[in-house]
Amino acid sequence: MIMLFQLKMVELSKEKGKVYFPDDTDEAFEVDSSTRAKDFCASIAHRLNLKSPEGFSLFVKIADKVISVPEGDFFFDFVRHLTDWIKKARPSRDGTTPHFTYQVFFMKKLWTNTVPGKDKNADTIFHFHQELPKLLREQCCEISSQQITLNLIVRTNGKEL
């Protein structure tokens, strides 16, 4: 089931919208026009009790594209530029302005400093759900990374080796 990022006016300068996570959950967050992607990520990480927002990023899915939001960009400015770009790339045939809805995802982007088991919340919400499909497709390169991922799967399911 796909749900759209729906905005509701909360105050004059703030809006509330859903953010989706790899474990098929979502939560509503307040965002205002001066919120940078890095601050939005920190806010999400804090609410989810992650040990650090390091390596996480916001992704916007619009039409058939999924694009990472640069951490220094203002969130709504990025979305506006993205929708303008999509409108130019896909002009309407009947002359009306096309309307695009978008979804916002929060996912792990950089894995260089990730240690399975160090952050249980990150393991259960992100690492497990993002890495399991890769493991099942056998895209892991080394035995050691497969062992780490398998260990993570076992720990996530509440069992120990």
TrEMBL record:
Domain (FERM): give its ranges.
15-161
Gene3D superfamilies per record? Phosphatidylinositol 3-kinase Catalytic Subunit, Chain A, domain 1 (3.10.20.90)
InterPro entries, from UniProt? Answer: FERM_domain, Ubiquitin-like_domsf, Unconventional_Myosin_ATPase
PROSITE patterns from the entry?
FERM_3 (PS50057)
**Full protein name:** FERM domain-containing protein
Q: Please name the source species.
A: Armadillidium nasatum
From which lineage does this chain's organism come?
A: Eukaryota, Metazoa, Ecdysozoa, Arthropoda, Crustacea
